[in-house]
Specification:
The protein starts with a helix and ends with a strand. The chain has a four-stranded antiparallel sheet, with no helix packed on it. The N terminus is likely disordered. The radius of gyration is 21 Å and the shape is globular. The protein has one helix and 18 strands. A hairpin with a 4-residue loop joins strand 6 and strand 7. With 216 residues, the protein is mainly β.
């Protein structure tokens, strides 16, 4: 009788915990057939954007429940990186450079100030300054919404930039030679901040408050 009671009690506990134990990730809102690998997610106030290889840019105004494709003016729908800086939205593409939108993605135009043919890998914003990284030309900075760009390389040991992110007044960059660097002067100079890294180059950097996280 004790064994029956104990078995019934365990079954009841597990049954009660089922909603917790079965919590899973699932597709939400955006039809998978419209997207492909390499999606980028960007939140900007009430706007949520997704950019991916082949589908271009999608926008949601209801936390991802419904989506609208916003590709007017995009000649290349293979999106590598997305960024917002003030009221401007930026999209880096695979072959056509950078596009800019001033109306939350409804219309796009080519950013003529960016003349390099090098592949753009990442964006980051620090205040009103926009930064980008490239696959072989290093990191760049613009303070005029992409009209002019300044090369930033003093202290970096690799020009292959994988990720950029900011925390307060600090800017961090990860490079292909498995280093992370920190700048406290808007990218003018960099110091190595790689102590403790033992698992290769960090392809992703992200933040939570004052904490910095990296993944490869």
């Amino acid at each position: 009788m004790k064994n029956i009671f104990f078995t019934s009690l365990i079954a009841a506990i597990v049954s009660g915990m089922a909603p917790i134990l079965s919590a899973q990730w699932m597709p939400y809102g955006l039809n998978q057939s419209k997207t492909s690998n390499g999606s980028i997610i960007l939140a900007d106030g009430a706007n949520l954007f997704v950019g991916n290889n082949g589908g271009g840019v999608f926008r949601s105004l209801d936390s991802g429940a419904t989506w609208t494709q916003v590709n007017s003016g995009l000649s290349d729908r293979n999106i590598i990186a997305l960024a917002v800086n003030g009221s401007k939205l930026f999209a880096a593409t695979d072959t056509a450079g950078i596009f800019i939108s001033t109306n939350n993605g409804a219309n796009w135009s080519v950013l003529t100030g960016w003349a390099s043919s090098d592949r753009i890998t990442t964006f980051a914003s620090l205040g009103t300054t926009l930064f980008l990284g490239t696959a072989s030309s290093g990191a760049f900075r613009t303070t005029d919404d992409g009209t002019t760009w300044t090369l930033l390389g003093n202290g970096l040991t690799s020009q292959d930039i994988l990720a950029l992110v900011s925390i307060g007044a600090n800017l961090f960059v990860s490079t292909h030679d498995a280093n992370v660097f920190r700048s406290t002067d808007n990218g003018n100079t960099w110091i190595n901040a790689s102590q403790g890294l033992t698992k290769g180059a960090l392809e992703v950097l992200t933040t939570d408050g004052t904490d910095l996280f990296g993944a490869n």
